[in-house]
């Protein structure tokens, strides 16, 4: 059997520990929690819409998926302007299967590009992903994308095993 290929994985919802605030006219509050995963990945710069935090806030964004995934990467689209320091100074990513107990976080460090693609393949599989960050001034995100492969549920694996056993037993009796 071939290994499943990595594909884009879209969360069913997400929530903020600290709601985005109005840093200026190009940022938004995102009260419906839909803009970070809507598939719109602007190229950056002012005039583009971002979820933004200011005043040294350190929020956590928790993403919920329809099932557990082995995540391979997370892409963070941010506005990186070194003169304004509009990027997170410290980023960490963790996974969970129950939404309560999270893996040891993968500490990413400082984001330094308009699009940072982070290899998260070392993290445990999970149905929930938390991205925590701190900043020195303001942090702006326009999109967060995930890539990974679905993890079969235990009941699916049990049925597959039972089917294989039936085939083996049927051949044995012939």
Features:
about 170 residues, mainly beta, 10 strands, about 10% helix
Task: Describe the fold and architecture.
With 174 residues, the protein is mainly beta. The protein is 11% helix and 41% strand. The protein contains 1 helix and 10 strands. The protein has one helix spanning 154-173, and strands at 7-9, 13-16, 27-28, 50-54, 60-78, 90-96, 106-109, 115-119, 126-134, 138-150. Strands 1, 2, 3, 4, 5, 6, 7, 8, 9 and 10 form a 10-stranded mixed beta sheet that branches. The longest helix has 20 residues, at 154-173. The chain is elongated. It starts with 6 loop residues before the first strand and ends with a helix. The model has no long low-confidence stretch (mean pLDDT 79).
**Low-confidence segments:** none
**How big is the Rg?**
20 Å
The major β-sheet equals: 10 strands, mixed
Mean pLDDT: 79
The rounded distance between the terminal residues' Cα atoms is 26 Å
Choose one word for the global shape.
Answer: elongated
Class per helix and strand makeup: mainly beta
Topology order in helix (H) and strand (E) letters: EEEEEEEEEEH
Strand content: 35-45%
Per DSSP, the total helix count is 1
Percentage of helical residues?
10-25%
Which helices and strands occur, and which strands form pairs?
Blueprint: E1 7-9, E2 13-16, E3 27-28, E4 50-54, E5 60-78, E6 90-96, E7 106-109, E8 115-119, E9 126-134, E10 138-150, H1 154-173
Summarize the structure.
By secondary structure, this protein is mainly β.
